[in-house]
Design goal:
The structure holds 2 protein chains of 2 kinds. Chain A has 21 helices and 14 strands. By secondary structure, chain A is an alpha/beta fold. Chain B is about 70% helix and about 0% strand. Chain B has 15 helices and 2 strands. At the A-B interface, helix 7, helix 19 and helix 20 of A face helix 14 of B.
Chain lengths: ~550, ~375
């Protein structure tokens, strides 16, 4: 779980407990307990039964609401989760082996947790791990420079799936041994994180430790009987979203009394990450259920970003700009602004974002919309563009294609260890320890920098048993689960330089939104031309090969 | 054996001739050995890196060590060869070698990179592509747009100069709490531009709750937005950047004002000059050399403007606030386009050098016309 989310969640729960559970609640529970009237799903029964249950045990470290975990806690969790290692590795088997691990140190999480988790692993196996800690901003340049200059100096790497093209695609990774696949129970992954994610040319490279996707968050007080939108329910398609956005113009926000606004499109770039937000609109039009590709043509790498589907998405935004329905200065609003300075602060009624924003809506101190927020998967479209036939199709039900933006973090082993079987086994054993099923539950529940990504993470009872508020955690998890498992999810292409494509697209979109291009088509054509140039620079044939591999074609 | 030394000559020690000759020889040998080792190591590694020979060092670190050895051999060798004069040079030579390693070499190497296609995501790696990057630059609307914006930002330095001069004059006059105000006026310069981006650009100028927006609404601007209209956005960026750097200009100008000859100013008063005449006929001309230096230093800072733009507008709306540096940042960092990014940077460096040189010459002529620069200063 993200640290910020955890802290806010704890603040919220503390006040709730004080108000609702307090002494009266405790007394009532005690009375039920003494009477032997506890039901099978009662938290107290669960706790009693969980004494022998490893998952329940680790969720007690340090205990939800008892402050942020420390290195001692991470080591305890690591120690308790060593079962898989002990099954596959003899004590002291890796004595003399030294491994280098490169990862992040964001918010003092990531690598810092890994150190604690792996300490008992090091003690048991005899291996030693050296650490390369990087700030988020330094990560991409460091990785790209290592690859480009042939100076990969790490054996294990924490890496996002979008970089698989840069690494697996270039043969820099070591294939996952079968014993690891069994050990980490990959079948438990949510659908979209299953192959082809983590694989290249049918070979598996990734141990997933995180999940990411965009979901739709909306203000419930904008909808319903007598609401300012005039709609009974929240919109489910983009034309409805845009209709509401235009309709609420000039009205007052029911919560803040200030000007009402509809959907909050970020119109400013965000280091490449801003393009995900145009994708939120475009995937509904462009991701055909029969075609895994939606961003490029897999046979030619010809961009689809200027096909009618993407042009329609850009046009939608341009129409809203022309209608002057966005908040002032929206042209200078990046995704961080739309989420944290606008939506959570009561400006605007609809937004697509990662799971963080949905949960922060109820837990952030700066959020004013906690009681009037609802979630669903990203809006769909009544029409979907078929790139193969170049025709618009109208399916019986709207086309939904949740945007699986970024695909989460994973642990990978580099080919530096491939020639040394002992070292290779040690590297994969360490990686498997970090990606273990039980340990991952702890990471999902406590500040770690990672979000849920396994089906087993969506067992509400475990969370409640650990001390979480049932309503909140159901909301938090439910908003992500449906997107994760959607059959027509738009999976991000894992090709080299993917953020280069996004970055230049942001620049061209900014020009288009500022009216420097004559039309959406011209804007899209400019993006496509820039993408073609990047593809040629990186190498078209190789990109085609890698793109197909990333799509599992 | 002693020698007669003039009273005002530097102190020198006499050494036996044979000993001095052997020292010279040792020095020359030392320099030669250091040079041979360095050249041999460099050549060996270049041949290995270019695939001509099969064995070599894994990294270029040994070449760096050889360079350090070469530098040390030259420094110590020339002390032995040149005696006292060589000893004096040891104060300068380490800095020279340091500058060569960290400034001259990277710049020259950068010129080579500028003539390559080097996208970090490309399998092909670094490939020489002749003039392609310059051709791309010539046809790149983002670059020319950013350069056009730099013209605007550069011209605004004159406005900043006028403000700074006025404030420096106030701080130079006999006002109450002069020391206090001098420190207060310096505060913005002590702030990081990144902090200013967040404190001012993202908070004070936030269009909904920011104090500036509230004030603008009070004054009748119904929907204030400081970064939506291209010209307002440019002006907002300029105001933030000026706020940070005007104090630097004030310090320089204040130092100049305090160094003005008091007797000249007093004589003008005795002769009945009005304050305006004293400023325009005496202070301004006398301050020209300082003013030119101040403006040039400020322009150099201005031409590097990037941090506030990157943090507040990312170059928007539609490139209206983009600077060459922020564009290079995106090209280099976000797009890993090392070849083209370096070409942009090197082209910009040359343009800046030419521009500043022209500015210096023009400034010198201007100062001479006003009689503020003695003829000897022209050299």
């Amino acid at each position: 779980m993200k640290l910020e989310l955890y802290n806010r969640l704890m603040q919220m729960q503390a006040s709730r407990r004080a108000l609702l559970k307090g002494a009266a609640g405790a007394g009532a529970v005690a009375a039920f307990g003494s009477a032997g009237a506890l039901g099978p799903l009662s938290p107290l029964t669960g706790k009693a039964l969980a004494q022998d249950n490893l998952r329940a045990e680790i969720l007690k470290i340090p205990g939800v609401g008892k402050g942020s975990p420390t290195d001692a806690d991470w080591q305890k969790v690591g120690e308790l989760c060593l079962g898989g290692t002990k099954e596959t590795v003899k004590e002291g088997e890796f004595a003399g082996v030294e491994l280098t691990f490169m990862g992040l140190n964001n918010q003092n999480l990531h690598n810092l947790l890994f150190r604690g988790f792996l300490k008992p692993w090091e003690t048991y196996t005899g291996a030693k791990i050296n650490w390369i800690d990087l700030a988020q901003a330094d990560y991409n340049p460091r990785l790209q420079q290592s690859i480009a200059t042939g100076t990969v100096d790490f054996d294990i790497i924490e890496m996002g799936a979008p970089f698989e093209g840069d690494t697996a695609g270039k043969g820099l990774l070591d294939e996952m041994p079968d014993w690891v696949k069994t050990l980490i129970d990959m079948d438990d992954y949510v659908n979209y994180l299953k192959p082809p994610v983590g694989t290249w040319d049918g070979k598996t490279y990734r141990i997933t430790i995180d999940g990411d996707c965009h979901t739709f968050a909306y203000r419930t007080d904008y909808f319903g009987e007598g609401s300012i939108s005039g709609m009974t329910d929240a919109p489910t398609t983009w034309d409805e979203v845009d209709e509401v956005t235009k309709k609420v113009k000039g009205q007052s926000d029911p919560l803040t009394g200030l000007d009402a606004y509809g959907f909050l499109d970020p119109l400013k770039g965000w280091g490449g990450f801003g393009f995900y937000f145009l994708e939120d609109r475009a995937t509904a039009y462009a991701k055909h259920p029969d075609d895994p590709a939606w961003l490029f043509d897999p046979d030619t790498m010809k961009p689809r970003v200027n096909n009618p589907a993407f042009v329609r998405a850009i046009q939608d935004v341009m129409d809203l700009i022309a209608a002057d329905v966005y908040p002032p200065d929206q042209i200078n609003a990046d995704p961080g602004t739309t989420a944290f300075q606008q939506f959570l602060a009561g400006t605007g009624s609809m937004i697509c974002w990662w799971g963080d924003v949905g949960s922060n809506a109820r837990t952030s101190d700066s959020s004013v919309i906690g009681d009037v927020v609802g979630f669903s998967i990203n809006p769909g479209s009544k029409q979907v563009y078929n790139a193969k036939t170049s025709e618009w199709e109208t399916p019986a039900t709207p086309n939904f294609a949740p945007n699986m933006a970024y695909l989460g973090w994973g642990i990978y082993v580099t080919n530096r260890v491939s020639g040394d079987e002992k070292k290779r086994k040690a590297a994969w054993s360490a990686a498997a320890h970090l990606g273990g099923k039980d340990l991952s539950l702890w990471c999902a529940a406590y500040p770690s920098g990672f979000q849920p990504y396994r089906n087993s993470h969506f067992n509400i009872e475990e969370w409640v048993e650990a001390g979480y508020d049932s309503d909140f955690i159901s909301d938090y998890l439910g908003s992500e689960s449906e997107s994760y498992n959607h059959p027509n999810a738009a999976i991000e292409p894992r090709i080299p330089g993917i953020f280069q494509y996004y970055s230049i697209a942001e620049d061209e979109l900014a020009k288009g939104f500022a009216g420097q291009y004559k039309s959406a088509q011209e804007t899209a054509d400019a993006i496509a031309a820039a993408w073609e140039k990047i593809t040629d620079e990186i190498g078209r044939e190789n990109q085609i090969k890698l793109y197909k591999a990333s799509l599992g074609m | 054996m002693t020698s007669s030394t003039p009273a005002n000559a530097p102190l020198a020690f006499d050494r036996p001739v044979a000993n001095a000759t052997s020292q010279k020889m040792a020095g020359k040998l030392m320099i030669a050995a250091g040079s041979i080792i360095f050249v041999a190591t460099l050549a060996f590694q270049i041949l290995y890196a270019s695939g001509v020979i099969e064995s070599g060092f894994d990294t270029w670190l040994p070449v760096l060590y050889a360079y350090a050895l070469w530098a040390a051999s030259i420094i110590f060798g020339q002390v032995l060869v040149r005696g006292e004069r060589g000893s004096r040079a040891t104060f300068v030579l380490p800095a020279v070698f340091f500058t060569v390693a960290l400034v001259v070499f990277p710049t020259i190497f950068g010129f080579y990179i500028a003539f390559t296609s080097w996208n970090l995501s490309s399998d092909a790696g670094r490939v020489f592509n002749g003039w392609d990057n310059l051709r791309a630059l010539w046809n790149d609307p983002f670059f020319w747009n950013a350069l056009g914006n730099m013209l605007y930002y550069g011209l605004m330095v004159l406005v900043e100069y006028a403000v700074a001069f006025g404030l420096a004059m106030i701080l130079n006059s006999e006002i109450r709490a002069r020391r206090f105000f001098r420190i207060v006026f310096l505060l913005p310069f002590m702030l990081s531009p990144v902090a200013v981006s967040w404190m001012v650009g993202k908070s004070i100028m936030e269009n909904r709750f920011g104090p500036m927006a509230r004030l603008a609404r009070l004054l009748g601007w119904e929907r204030p937005a400081f970064f939506s209209d291209p010209w307002i956005a440019r002006l907002s960026i300029e105001v933030m950047d000026a706020w940070v750097f005007i104090p630097l200009m004030i310090i320089l100008l204040l130092a100049g004002l305090q160094a003005l000859p008091k007797e000249v100013l007093e004589a003008s008063k005795v002769d009945g000059a009005t304050p305006w005449q004293a400023f325009w006929r005496i202070i301004f001309p006398l301050m020209l050399p300082v003013s030119i230096t101040t403006i040039i230093i400020r322009i150099i800072f201005k031409l590097k403007l990037a941090d506030i733009v990157i943090n507040v507008t990312a170059g928007g709306p539609g490139g209206a606030t983009d600077t060459v540096s922020s564009f290079i940042y995106r090209e280099y960092r976000d797009r890993s386009n090392v070849g083209y990014g370096t070409a942009l940077a090197e082209f910009y460096l040359i343009a800046i050098i030419i521009f500043i040189t022209v500015l210096l010459i023009a400034g010198r002529r201007l100062a001479r016309r006003y009689g503020a620069l003695p003829a000897v200063a022209e050299s």
